[in-house]
Amino acid sequence: MYKEILENIKKLKLIENDPKANSLVEKIKEELSKKAGDNEPKRKIIVFSEYADTVNHLRPILEKHFPKKVLTVAGDLSKQTIGLLAENFDAGNKNQKDDFEILLATDRISEGFNLNRAGMIINYDIPWNPVRVIQRVGRINRIGKKVFEKLYIINFFPTEQGAEYVQSRKIAANKMFMIHNILGEDVQIFDSNEKRTPANLYKKIQSDPDEQEESFDTKIYNEFHKIKRENPKLIERLETFPPRVKVAKNNKNKSLLVFIKKGSLYIKKVTENEKGEIEVKVASLEKVYKEIKCGKDEKKMELSDKFWRYYEAAKNYKSKQSSSRSEQSIEVKASNMLNSLLRQSGLEECKTFLETLREDMDRYETLTPNSLRRIAKMPINNISKLKNELGELRKDLGGENYLELDKQRAKNINKELIIAVENR
Q1: Residue 178 belongs to a domain
Q2: Rounded distance between C-alpha atoms, residue 106 and residue 5, angstroms
Q3: So what's the pLDDT on residue 299?
Q4: Which residues are CB-neighbours of 32 under 8 A, at least 6 positions away?
Q5: Which residues contact residue 211 at a Cβ distance below 8 angstroms, ignoring those fewer than 6 apart?
Q6: pLDDT over 90 for what percent of the chain?
Q7: What pLDDT sits at residue 48?
Q8: What is the pLDDT of residues 366-424, one digit of tens each?
Q9: Are 267 and 372 in a shared domain?
Q10: Residues of the domain holding 417
Q11: Nearest CA to 355 among 423, 412, 289, 402?
Q12: Contact (CB, 8 A) for 247 and 300
């Protein structure tokens, strides 16, 4: 199969005559031919690709059509390149230059660079992780440093036929939909009509015959909007609810469910075993959904005499990433690996990040089970591969200071919300 693909590429001369690259060139020519807007500088362009190989493929093509106007970043950044980036793309730099109009780069520069002299980003490919797309846009959408009245995002997606195999748009757009709703991100990333709804893509997924079962996220979304349609005043009243809500209702599964929201959402389920001992476990919304769901005519009950004991047990319980033994063992392995890495020589440039991971595990527990597994499986005997793995993890978590950003977001949240639902 691999050899057949290569043979077809050669026969069709796709490297010499790449239709996608040709379309990119035409779009850039069209944009650069436009006059600058009123009181605005000439708009520069950033072309992003997730892959260094793609950047290296595009480099000679763009340099042929735009000689001496293309700055390329495909790998590590030298001091000279950083200087060129600042001089040509940072509106806040004192030494302004116009040597380059186009920046061709990987996600190596999607964090930490102010590139707001560019008013357009072209995503030559879409990462499966849409957070990286947001990071790309963040290079030109700088808060308090407005240069252009409008910013433009151009996305290359696979053809309908290719999308059936790759499904990058479907996956990324669904994740972006969740980000919009969870974080309140309001920048239109994938489509000029994009709003904080899954729009046509969502409808398509709903009618997709390959989807055998409605996902839990979809079920919750539908349920919420059904309530919003039928009882709009109830949704409005949520704004006036106190930060502490305690309620009891009838349910055969006797328990207390405590939902704590401050930054992240934590759910704790309190029950009593046969010996009369209180047990607290971490739960997920999907698992307890049926126990909290009730109709609009459900009658409120009085809190039981056990409520406050259960409630205090839940609040004082120190949550773990998972109550399962296997995932607790992953946490132990990750912790042991971090201790080893902190003692390892040759990782001096990674020390700050490793200490941040250590602090996170000891005090904040924001790392997902997947991140813990990645830490636990670090290739400690291969220093080069180890540095690459740590670099990828750092990028996926949001950068060197990801924990500080999480802590800052938590400080900015005025209220800690606690909802307690007693089933009795």
Answers
A1: no
A2: 25
A3: 86
A4: 45, 66, 101
A5: 205
A6: 17
A7: 92
A8: 777 778 888 988 988 888 888 888 988 888 887 877 777 666 655 554 456 788 899 98
A9: yes
A10: 244-424
A11: 402
A12: yes
